[in-house]
Amino acid sequence: MEHEFTLVFSTARCVEGVDEIVEILGQAGPTDATVGLGKRGHVALMFSREAASLGAAAQDAIAEIKRVLPMAKLVELRQGDVR
Question: Which residue among 21, 28, 68, 69 is least enclosed by CB atoms within 10 Å?
Answer without folding.
Answer: 28
